[in-house]
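Contributing new records

If you add data, match the layout below exactly. Sequence lines come first and carry their own label; structure lines follow with theirs. Keep one chain per record. Anything else will be rejected by the validation script.
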Amino acid sequence: MNFFNLFKKDVVLHCYTDKPDVYNFSSVKEAKNFIPEWWKRIPKHYRLPTMGLAGPDLNTMKSCSGFTDLYRQGFMLPMWSDCEVVVGETGSDAFRYEYSNGYSIAQSHPETQRGTQYPTRDYLHLKFESEWRLMCEEDVDFLLTAPVWNYDAPESLIVLPGVLNFKYQSSLNINVLFKRKATAEKYLVPFGMPIAHLVPLTERKLVIKTHLVSSETLKRINSITTYTTFAGKHSNNKRILKASGCPFHFKAEK
């Protein structure tokens, strides 16, 4: 860590929901809270079978700094409800989804938005709209990536990466792809499974604060993503918010 960063203030990220079940059972938390159980069960050392007791102790991935450092960074968003997704066969555009909570939604963007990449005949695109709205007073980018180590079958769910900035947007939606197969397939994206890992692109300490608020307060927070224009909504809103100096127009809860 850069020595001078010790004297910089923390980056505080406020996370809001108006759903008590989401707040109580599937809260946004630091990534260190989602270390997979299979990793915890791995012994620290092993020996090559051919060398037996005479062999040296060799390190397992328990000593892999690439893994351990990853889980020291940022926060994860767990699925707030079971979601069953039925993906139609190759060549079709069929799909359906159902959340166990009965109220969450997802969207599928049309193929025309991404050109020839990941055609609908081969892939289903879904955007899971999370029940959290985020607010950060600092101009800090967050890298969104897939928590692949937490997936039993990583090939079944492709989480698309991106960069988000919660000073200029409040939504935390997860874009995913499902590969179509010769026959229709059913997938379960289970409650509690991390669906996204967000890493702040700064060396400053990240502090996460979660809040259960009224629907009216959440609506005010969500207004930052209002469709002010038909095209270029995000860049236009960002320009306006930068000029105004105060994107949310109310004080964050402590």
